[in-house]
Amino acid sequence: MHQNQIRWGILSTAFISYKTWKAIQLSGNSVLVAVASRDKTRSQAFIDECQASDPYPAPPRAYGSYEELLVDQTVDAVYIPLPTGLRKEWVLRAAKAGKHIVCEKPCAISLDDLREMVEACQQNNVQFMDGVMFMHSNRLQKIRELLDDEKSIGDIRRITSQQSYAAPDDFLKNNIRLQSKLEPQGCLGDLGWYNIRFALWAMNWELPHTVTGQFLSVYEREDSPDSVPTEFSGELFFANGASSSFYCSFITENQQWANISGTKGYLYIDDFVLPFHGAQTTIEHYQSEFVIKGCDFNMMKNNKSLSIAEHGNSAPDSQESNLYRNFSNQILSGSFNPLWPQTALATQQVSDACIQSASENGKPIKLT
């Protein structure tokens, strides 16, 4: 690798790769040097399109197979946005090739598969991290300060969140997220991963002792061996009595809010996954008060809006740029961050348990 720069490759021209192209470019310590697809023409078309809008001084190389990219000795790290059903194979291959890995979520079909993937990375001395961008938002640091100061929120009692979008008919008929071999967890894997991750993060990575899940709606397609969830709800129960509920959906219009309620106040974030476009992100902090004066019963709002100077997207300080900067800095440091694979494993474990519960009519599933 270059002394102050990590050289990246992307395995797949999936839609999210457009965002990754620019995020790597804006990170300041990374450069994209190669893109692979199963068809070199497709790789080149992707590169040409991105170069036209956000060019690199030296255009990335186009490869017609993932294998070709992995043997390229000028590639230090890879981003893998392949369908979940294919991720295990290519994470294992990338690790064996000595490439550091950012893996799109959900990381694997099962917890056992993800454990094998993480172990392969450890054995081959490469860093693994999932691609949850909001984990690298500057706003998250401010939320943690409020959670830890013992007076703004107090003890957490309840975390609720929703992540949803109303997908068009073409999405339901053709998108891989509705194909059970490729994306068996449907909306839970694609969206619920964020809900679960946010709750685990808020609880300082404590695993719930019990979870429940419900399929609220499913979709069956001719090319899919099994149905996949299009609406899902889950509940997480923690040892100290705190709980968390979430809802994710492919058929409910755009919402991505989270609420953390405590003994002294609560926080509300209306865009916790993808910040709204602009030069700042926000947090709403409430310490509402019920005041009685004679015959007047007054519920006082007592709220304040906190602003954090960071762009919602497409800027050096946006969360996706931070992700690649943070990951590349970690590699350049010569050390590894063990928390990143651990948080992916924890999220996968809870997600799998939610699916198991839903498959058994909401039966509570104990976690160990």
Cross-sheet strand order for the largest sheet = 16-13-12-11-7-10-9-8-17
Stated plainly, the CATH topology of the largest domain is called: Dihydrodipicolinate Reductase, domain 2
Q: Determine the CATH superfamily of the largest domain.
A: Dihydrodipicolinate Reductase, domain 2
Count of extended strands? 17
- In helices, the fraction of residues equals 25-40%
Overall CATH class of the largest domain: Alpha Beta
C-alpha-based Rg, rounded: 21 Å
Which descriptor suits the 3D outline?
A: globular
User: How many individual helices?
Assistant: 10
What's the N-to-C terminus distance? 40 Å
Q: Assess the beta-strand content as a share of residues.
A: 25-35%
Walk me through this protein's architecture.
The protein has 368 residues and is an alpha/beta fold. The chain has 2 domains: 6-134 and 319-337, Rossmann fold; 137-314 and 346-366, Dihydrodipicolinate Reductase, domain 2 (2-Layer Sandwich), CATH 3.30.360. Helices cover 35% and strands 27% of the residues. The strands form 3 sheets. Strands 16-13-12-11-7-10-9-8-17 form a 9-stranded mixed beta sheet. It is globular and about 75 Å long. The model has no long low-confidence stretch (mean pLDDT 97).
